[in-house]
Design brief:
Blueprint lengths: L8 E2 L13 H10 L4 E2 L10 H11 L2 E2 L2 E8 L2 E8 L6 H27 L6 H10 L7 H10 L6 H9 L12 E2 H10 L3 E4 L8 H7 L6 E6 L4 H14 L2 E5 L19 H15 L2
Bound molecules: adenosine monophosphate (AMP), zinc ion (ZN) and fe (iii) ion (FE) (2 copies).
Length: about 280
Amino acid sequence: MSPMIPFRADLHCHSTCSDGLLTPQELVQYAKQIGLSGLSITDHDTVAAYKEAIPKALELGLKMISGIEFSTLFADIPIHVLAYSFQLDHPSIQNYCQKHIERRHTRNLAIVAKLQQQGFNITYDEILQNAAQRASQTIGRPHIAMLMMEKGYVDSMQNAFKKYLGEKGLCYVPGTPFSTEETLQTIHATNGFAIIAHPHLIPKSSTVKRLLNLPFDGIEAYYASFSADENNKWVKIAQERNWLMTGGSDFHGSIKPINQLGSCFVNEETFQILAKRFHENENI
Ligand code: AMP
Ligand code: ZN
Ligand code: FE
Ligand code: FE
C-alpha cells in the first residue's frame, strides 16, 4: 500500500505563457513530481497555459482549476487580483485578456524607448522574438529584464528592476492597467471567484482597508515564504467576512528562487469549493 500523502493544491504559479520559466506541461509535471494533488496556473493576464496544461494534468491525475492573475490599479496603486473557477473560454475573460495584451504592448514600447534614451542597445523586436520562442502570450518587465541580462547590461533580475524597471527605476513606466473595480466586475460576469493576491505585499494599511470594501470573494492568506503569524492576520480578516482563504507559492522558476512550488497551498476542502464552481462553469 502506498503511504497516504495529504492533499495539497498550490493555487498561484506562472508558466512561460507569462513570465515563468517552465512551460505549462513542465509545470504540471513538476507539480505531480513534488506530490501536489491540485494546481491552478495563474499567469499574468492570460489563460493560454490551460490548452496544454489540462490534457497533461488529466494524463498524470493532477486536479486543476482555472486561474489567472490580473494586474489592476486601485486609485493609482498597483494591485494584483487572482481569479479562479471561471469558464476558461468565457468571452468576458477572453476579451479582457486581449485588452491586457494591447495595453502591455503600449507600455513595453514606452519602456524600450526610455531604455534606448539611457543608451541601451535594445529593440522591442528582440523582446518579441524571445517572447515568441517561449510562446509567451503576455509580455512584461521580466522579459525586458531577461534581455538586459542576456546582453550583459545587468547582472541579475533584481538589479534590472532596482535600477531601471521597478517603481523607483530610471525607466519605470506605470502603464494603464484597468481598475480593480472593473476587474472584479469582469470576474463576476464569468461566475468566477475574485481574490486579493498577496495582501502581505501591499505597502499601506490604509490601501488594504479601502480594498476590503470591494466585493471580493476571498484573500490569498497563505503566500510564498511568509510566516504563520503573518498569514494569520489575513486568515482572521477573511474569517470575519466569511471569505475564502486561498494560498500559493507564486512560483516562477529559478528567476524567483524564494518562491518554491508547493511552499504554500490549500487543503482539499478549500480546493473542492473552487473545483465545484469550476466544473459547474465548464459543464463537466
Ligand atoms: P509586469 O507584469 O510587467 O508589471 O511585471 C511584474 C512582474 O515582474 C511580477 O509579477 C514579478 O514576476 C516581476 N517582478 C516585479 N518586481 C520584481 C523584482 N524586484 N525582481 C524581480 N522580479 C520582479
Ligand atoms: Zn510574475
Ligand atoms: Fe502578483
Ligand atoms: Fe504571481
